[in-house]
Amino acid sequence: MGVLSPDQLDSFIERGFCVLEGAFTSSQAAAARERVWERMEAKRGIRREDPATWPPAYDIEEHLDAPEVLATFTDRLAAAVEELLGPGRWRGDRRWGFWPVNFHFGAHEPYRIPDFSWHVDGNWFRHTLDCPRQGLLVIGLFSDIAPRHGGTIISQGSHRRTARVLARHPEGLTHLELFERVLAEPIGDFLELTGAAGDVVLGHPFLFHTRGYKHGGPPRFISNTEAGLKEPLVLERENPADYSVLERSIRVALQAPLPVPGGAQLCRF
């Protein structure tokens, strides 16, 4: 029996993500946060004990290789990643690569779903339907995140539209070209990612998301990383049992009618 339930696998295929609760412990999350605070102070002079030094948001665009941080990419999390990507197909890089900290972004504005900064990750490669570079969007929660406390906002099901856009461009698209085409029509079914420190969101690489407004709570710590593949995806296999969950999700996206998103609005990068 795998780490992920059938409902979680279905959620990944249909909604573009699933959540692995308690992928690491709250104490492990706290130990990792200590290293992030240290790095923010060294890089930008952001001090935990002095809120006057806190910007609205700050991103550490680097791996943190302290043992306390590496320990949070647990065996259970690695097994879940492999369930979605297929046995032996993941590169196996068990590191967190990007640390967006939300202190008070949008705190002085009415709460709403932002219509800007919508994106998928991967500005370092050309996007194609079978590209192995991203694999999964892995979002680790390193602090508790309550509603309206700055969680990442996702557009559920947007991975389907992204897949269709990429299918029309086998030559590949740059980051901005992809955004322009996907966001030419309204997106919706918005959801703020909330949960407990130690939860991990396993997202589709084609899932559009943005930073949420933060109207309460302590600084929000998450980390994003990719789970890249050894080889490109294969969307036409002789044996259907050989498709990974990720490959199946793309096939479904290309074959099933696109649902009309709820609460849709025009968004931009």
Structure description:
With 269 residues, the protein is α+β, with helices and mostly antiparallel strands. The chain has one domain (6-255): Sandwich (Jelly Rolls), CATH 2.60.120. It has seven helices and nine strands. The strands form two sheets. The protein has a six-stranded antiparallel β-sheet. Helix 5 (158-167) packs across helix 7. It starts with 5 loop residues before the first helix and ends in a 14-residue tail after the last helix. The mean pLDDT is 97.
Task: Give me the secondary-structure topology.
Blueprint: H1 6-15, E1 17-20, H2 26-44, E2 57-60, H3 67-70, H4 75-85, E3 99-102, E4 137-141, E5 153-155, H5 158-167, H6 175-182, E6 190-192, E7 200-203, E8 209-210, E9 220-226, H7 245-255
Helix pairs in contact: 1-7, 5-7
Summarize the structure.
The protein has 269 residues and is of the alpha+beta class. The chain is 27% helix and 13% strand.
Give me some keywords for this one:
3-stranded antiparallel beta sheet, 269 residues, globular
Unreliably modeled segments? none
> How much strand?
5-15%
- Alpha-beta classification: alpha+beta
CATH architecture annotation = Sandwich
Strand order, biggest sheet? 1-7-4-9-3-2
